[in-house]
Design goal:
Number of strands: 23
Organism: Virgibacillus tibetensis
Number of helices: 4
CATH topology of the largest domain: Sulfite Oxidase, Chain A, domain 2
Mean pLDDT: 94
Number of domains: 2
Domain Oxidoreductase molybdopterin-binding: 42-214
CATH class of the largest domain: Alpha Beta
Low-confidence stretches: none
Order of helices and strands: EEEEHEEHEEHEEEEHEEEEEEEEEEE
Domain Moybdenum cofactor oxidoreductase dimerisation: 240-351
Pfam families: Mo-co_dimer (PF03404), Oxidored_molyb (PF00174)
Protein name: Sulfite oxidase
Distance between the termini: 20 Å
Helix content: under 10%
CATH superfamily of the largest domain: Oxidoreductase, molybdopterin-binding domain
Structural class: mainly beta
Largest sheet: 5 strands, mixed
Length: 353
């Protein structure tokens, strides 16, 4: 495994807009330097002016306020270490195949985000009694292929999630200013939810007293279980329990002897309670060893297993995680036509020679 970040590069999925994934199999640490954090964009990068240093909070509030960047950094700060996973992570693995960015396993990353709790700002403005949702609008905008109209990227949160103390307006990543390509100067960070909720380049926060129906809320980031109709559709929100076998690599050829099988696991609600591993295509399962960091509410955990093998041949390795809500990765992911939330048991095939 690489021990030097300079050896690693993002894996390109598209250039316009720029979408690149993390080389997830080779991470030498449990959080990422900026140059290896996956990039997900719906449009080209925004052109920002000094106005981006101000954050308006308007709508169904008692006192609309324009916060300066200086105001925010002088408020009590809050830091959360969070997994951010694109809702389309592992889309490439769906069967039948679906359209969209063909992410493999690296549309997720983890790091420390520092900022101000959104709850703190909403307490200053004061919410009206009929407030139901909080809409975050980014500076990024463009045309959609399915609608002849220009849209800003906007997403809403229910009031309860917006008021959670760990939902923050971040201004720093790993103790440095947020890099431009990841949302500088301000980014919403929503732990436990897929990363579409963590709006970058925040332009304004608007409180509303009705349901938000923007295209990135009501068309995209919706589970559509049916190929030809919208029947049974429901919104993408919390991360599903998931895992990745980082080493060995799929289709890798190994010698007989002792090998370390290792990977990561994460979930939306709760924490990872166990990771099970199979080296015989799911016929039998054994418990992996979990390296559990202190208070790892929103982090992935590292797991490993020492495997000694003397018989040559092909082997299918499988990993499945279970969380504290007793949710376990299924043998097959729930197919949906936009390809969100893939979380089937992770599988790699290796050969022993």
């Amino acid at each position: 495994m690489s021990k030097n970040y300079s050896d690693l590069n993002l894996i390109v999925r598209s250039l316009l807009p720029e979408n690149q994934e993390t080389p997830i199999s080779f991470l030498p640490e449990d959080h990422l330097q900026t140059d290896l954090f996956f990039r997900r964009n719906h449009f080209t990068y925004p052109s920002l002016t000094n106005s981006s240093y101000w954050l308006p909070i308007v709508g169904a509030v008692h006192t609309p306020i324009l916060f300066s960047f200086k105001d925010l950094v002088q408020m009590p700060s809050h830091t959360v270490k969070v997994v951010l996973e694109c809702a389309g992570n592992k889309r490439n693995l769906f069967k039948p195949k679906v359209f969209g960015e063909q992410w493999e396993k690296g549309a997720l990353s983890m790091g420390r985000w520092k900022g101000v709790s959104l709850k703190t700002l909403l307490n200053v403005t004061g919410l009206k009694h009929d407030a139901t949702e909080v809409v975050a609008e980014g500076y990024d905008y463009g045309n959609r292929t399915d609608i002849d109209h220009t849209f800003s990227y906007m997403r809403s949160l229910p009031i309860e999630k917006a008021l959670h103390p760990d939902t923050i307006i971040a201004y720093a990543y790993n103790d440095k200013p947020i890099p431009f390509k990841h949302g500088f100067p301000l980014r919403l960070i929503v732990p436990q939810w897929y990363a579409m909720a963590s709006v970058k380049w925040i332009k304004q926060i608007r409180i509303i007293n009705k349901k938000f129906h923007g295209p990135f809320q009501s068309i995209d980031y919706v589970y559509y279980p049916q190929k030809e109709s919208d029947a049974g559709a429901y919104p993408v929100t919390y991360n599903r329990v998931n895992s990745i076998i980082q080493q060995p690599l799929n289709r890798e050829v190994l010698d007989t002897g002792l090998h370390i099988i290792k990977g990561i696991a994460w979930t939306g609600k709760g924490t990872i309670s166990k990771v099970e591993l199979s080296v015989d295509h799911g016929e039998t399962w054994i418990r992996a060893v979990i390296d559990r960091p202190y208070n790892a509410n929103y982090e992935w955990i590292n797991w490993s297993y020492e495997w000694e093998i003397s018989k040559k041949g092909e082997y299918t390795l499988m990993a499945k995680a279970t969380d504290s809500f007793n949710r376990t990765q299924p043998p097959e992911a729930m197919w949906n036509r936009k390809g969100y939330g893939y979380n089937a048991i992770d599988t790699v095939v290796i050969k022993i020679e």
